Amino acid sequence: MPERPFDSENARKKQHAEQSNNELDENSPTNNNEQSGDEEDDDENQIKGNEEEDYQEDDDEETPDFTDDEYGSEFTDDYLCPELMAERPQEHESLNNVIIVDNLPKVDPAKLEKLKEVISKVYNKFGVCRNVYYPLDKDGKTKGYGFFEFQNEQMALEAVKQTDGYRLDKNHTFSVTLMSEFERLTQVPSEATDIGNLLSWLTEPDAVDQFAVQSDDPKKTMIYSNALSQPILLEERSKWTETDFVWSPKGTYLASFHEKGIALWGGKEFRQVQRFAHTGGVQHIDFSPCERYLVTTSARPGNSEAFIIWDVITGQKKRSFPVEQGSPYFKWSFQDNYFARQGPDGIYMYDTESFQLVDKKPFRIPLLADFEWSPTDDHIAYWTAEEGNVAARLVLAKVKDAKLEEIRSKTLFNVIDCKLAWQKRGDYLVVKVDRYTKKSGEKNNIKYSGLIYNFEIFHMRERNIPLDTLEVKETIQSFAVEPVGHKLIVISGEGVRTNVTFYKMGQGQKSGKIEALKVIAQPITKAFWAPNGQYVVLAALRVGSSPGGLLVFVDTNDMSIMPKQEHPDLSEVEWDPTGRYVTSVVHCRSGVKRDYSFKIWTFQGNLVFEKTVERLAAFHWRPRPASLLNDEGIKKVRQNRNVWTPKFDQRDRILRTGESAKQQEQRRRQLDEFQKIKEKNAKRLAIQKQQRLDLRGGIDTDSLFENQSNAGEEVVEFLIKTEEVEYKP
Questions:
Q1: In this structure, are 591 and 622 located in the same domain?
Q2: Could you give the 3-state DSSP secondary structure of residue 523?
Q3: 149/232 same-domain check
Q4: In a shared domain, residues 258 and 295
Q5: Distances (CA, A) of 72 to 79, 611, 723
Q6: 357 to each of 82, 361, 379, how far by Cα in Å?
Q7: One-character DSSP codes across 110-170
Q8: Which residues pair with 351 in a beta bridge?
Q9: What is the rounded distance in angstroms from the CA atom of residue 421 to the CA atom of residue 311?
Q10: Domain check: are 264 and 324 in the same one?
Q11: What is the mean pLDDT of residues 549-566?
Q12: Which domain holds residue 142?
């Protein structure tokens, strides 16, 4: 039974009394007089005897019981000391009612009261602060943080939610956390898990890329290395993910989906790097471009945390959002400095320093229809819809000093819809505009006729950002901007009767000229550019009852058409990050009932690998980070291509032979071992020659075998390739 505080206090008093009695006994005259006689001893014994009798008489009397009701036990501590007992610690309370506020102003003693007054106005609205403490340094100045104890946990949680990221002024943005959470974050695990080098896959000597394949039945995820001989299976796991998987933008992480949240995997052995708990089932995730943040989406009814933004490295929840009016998804700036969404009255932009609204309010843009960030600058392109007599507008703006500054715009009339598309390098903004000549019907049932299609092309690197207009008379099915270059592909027509037109967007003094390079009449639905441009695959994807399957490989430098290929019921096409290979995929999620497979082609249209996968659900190449070489470095590499090409070709030939090269290496080792045994036996034969002569009467029998060959010949054949040739008698 635990000792009560009052019991320990009584014990201390008793011990102190005994110690005092001992000191008195040591200093008494009786003890100090060593020559006391027997008479004094007899007197002492008589006194002790009388005392014992007195004590015995006292013991016979009844000892008072202070627990009886007659002594007032019905009066509780709460009744006797209500004010004192109201402040006693409660069992349900913990450090969850204490918050730590960091990034407070550091002030001297003269300004401390003023600081307390300002901060109290911020936190008193969340409830009663029972205790407030500002740590001071040796000079009496505040250290820039403080502790606030609220009356209960709910008040503290609301204070953290509302003031974490609160901007007091331009130099002080609060960082607020619960005291209990702070202790958890500062605890160092006894054994740190070594996940290895997260970029180890980039050190592969032959720069071989990786890809992941998922099957639905059974639920398996496989990761391959795209070796030249044939892909090599690196990892295979059952139920690695419950629904889908996603590569991060630079390929560092593989994200898996689970009922309780998201897990990230990485390193050479694909160990778990981080996990993010988001209950309710995550339907969608989005990495920021630099992989610093992750947005998880669980937009189920009644979920107050439908969108959560996480720090990828620490796993810390940075901010959460409920489902609100407008576009629910966030779009990131190119360096992860900002993220924004479309709201009911404009663009709601947040910075990643405080995770609060930039300038503490949204950018008001009436009739906002859509917006897109530039992939290379803090520029935003957006368009506003027309309403009544108000025309539609295309606007280019840049983020500067917490403001959205308009730098270019164009007014458009009779607009139905716009599609914004940035070029990968940010050199161009291409906007497809759908317009009409006649409108009829009511507001909720509007009908358009006399449709017109055109492109508005902004030249971002030119002075004053010149604007070109390209009109297309046919219905536009899709378009694609060259990632690195100046070309635009437009696929127009009706149904399977389509035309593919290649345009060249002028630059410099020719920025106002758009040149049609080539027209290809093929049943194409979509164009897929190689990551670095020049090469493109024109594909006929499965649409409705049309199986599609046509693949046209084009080199846009000379507009030559390379081999045409087929992959019936084609679902999707995806380039590897280097542009050396491209994959065509037929998966089960397209609704096709046939063999599901993927085929890997070279950029020239040659088939290098094909595999059928039971219930193939997804295929994705692992992305690569951007090259560390600048434009000048890439230019030098291309200039010296003739020097390196023969070496790379020789290495490729060795790798392509695959198993034959291994067999040759094995035979070489066997031959070396045979030569060593032969030399050893030849030495022993020479040493024993005199013994043989003595035994054979001086006759040299070794000369009898000198002219006879003891070497045999063995012919070894390797299968290089097989070809089918049609026989014509």
A1: yes
A2: coil
A3: no
A4: yes
A5: 12, 90, 109
A6: 47, 6, 17
A7: HHHHHHHHHHHHHHGGGS-EEEEE--B-TTS-B-SEEEEEESSHHHHHHHHHHHTT-EEET
A8: 338
A9: 28
A10: yes
A11: 92
A12: 91-186
Give residues with Cβ within 8 angstroms of 79, minimum separation 6.
Answer: none
CA–CA separation, 204 and 212 (whole Å): 17
Residue 76 belongs to a domain: no
**Domain-embedded: residue 225:** yes
Q: Do the Cβ atoms of 434 and 475 come closer than 8 Å?
A: no
Examine the domain organization and report whether 284 and 257 are in the same domain.
Answer: yes
Is it the case that residue 149 has pLDDT exceeding 70? yes
The CA-atom distances, in angstroms, between 598 and each of 23, 211, 545, 602, 619 are 97, 12, 21, 14, 8
What whole-number distance in Å separates Cα of residue 171 and Cα of residue 202? 40
E strands along 436-486, which residues?
438-442, 445-449, 452-459, 467-472, 476-481
In whole angstroms, give the CA distance from residue 166 to residue 176: 9
218 preceded by a cis bond (ω within 30 of 0): yes
> Does residue 541 sit in the same domain as residue 582?
yes
State if pTM tops 0.90. no
Highest mean pLDDT among 301-305, 416-420, 695-699: 416-420
Domain shared by 536 and 581, yes or no: yes
What confidence tens digit (pLDDT) does each residue in 336-353 have? 999 999 998 999 999 998
Torsion angle in degrees (nearest 10) through CA of 54, 55, 57, 61: 140
Q: What is the DSSP string of 564-595?
A: EEE-TT--EEEE-TTSSEEEEEE-GGGT--S-
Mean of per-residue pLDDT scores for the chain: 82
pLDDT above 70 covers a percentage of the chain that reads 80
Q: How far is CA 718 from CA 87, 576, 664, 722, in A?
A: 90, 32, 10, 12
Q: Which conformational region is residue 424 in: left (phi greater than 0), alpha (psi within -120 to 50 degrees), or beta?
A: alpha
Three-state secondary structure readout of 404-433: EEEEEEEEECCEEEEEEEECCCCCEEEEEE
| Domain-located, residue 199 | no
- The predicted pLDDT at position 54 comes to 47
Interstrand relation of 560-566 and 550-555 (parallel, antiparallel or unpaired): antiparallel
457-512 pLDDT, tens digit each: 999 999 999 999 999 988 999 999 999 999 999 999 887 788 999 999 877 656 55
For 120, the token pair is 């109290």
Number of domains in the chain: 4
Cβ–Cβ < 8 Å for 342, 365:
no
Helices (H), 250-304: none
Region label for 697, one of left (φ > 0), alpha (ψ between -120 and 50) or beta (otherwise): left
What is the rounded average pLDDT of the residues 102-119? 92
Strand order from edge to edge, sheet including 467-472 = 415-422, 428-435, 452-459, 467-472
Whole-number Å distance between alpha carbons of 405 and 265: 40
- Give the C-alpha separation, 372 to 334, whole Å: 11
How many residues appear in the chain?
729
State the number of CA atoms in the 13 A half-sphere of 680 facing the CB: 6
- 539 and 595, same structural domain? yes
Residue tagged 């009695």 (tokens):
21
Phi-psi category of 33—alpha, beta or left, where left has phi over 0 and alpha has psi -120 to 50? beta
